[in-house]
Amino acid sequence: MTKEKRALEIIDRLKKEYPDADCTLDYDQAWKLLVSVRLAAQCTDARVNIVVEKLYDKYPDVQALAEASVEEIEAIVKPCGLGHSKARDISACMRILRDQYGGKVPDDFDALLKLPGVGRKSANLIMGDVFGKPAIVTDTHCIRLTNRMGLVDNIKDPKKVEMALWKIIPPEEGSDFCHRLVYHGRDVCTARTKPHCERCCLSDICEKNGVEG
Prior knowledge:
By secondary structure, the chain is mainly alpha-helical. Helices cover 56% and strands 0% of the residues. The protein is elongated.
């Protein structure tokens, strides 16, 4: 089975297994996803979703958050870890949105990458979820699972995994595919325990199980 055929089959099966998979960070505006994805570094999405409620109660829009001091932001986001650096990036990012983009999040990938604290993973998430554009989010689940499945060959670098997946994943499928990998990675193809291959919908086509590519 070629990587392209395996990818299409995996996409199809995961669609059936997780039909409603979407972003696990709560947000109702683009700038809130930008904040949450920065806070999610080395922190669970569940904890981020709790912490940002207090942040948005106090600072309900880009203008308010842009005017807040780094120390004020840090006091709220500290439970997410790396409080000072995250608060600094969020503060700087909101000021740029206010001053350069009229409070809006830019829908250009390169413009997103120029924002403080925004890397390729975050930019892809926003492009896919907010703007509905082709995106591949290479988080830890994506990297682990695509290596196990044989879609990429022992590649750990996020950008290299992204570039390899662009070659075999249809652009319109990339964003949802990555969300489904998160669900599958948490429930079945786990990192901290032995993967539950016995109840995996992909076991017969997974390279980890000795299926040849």
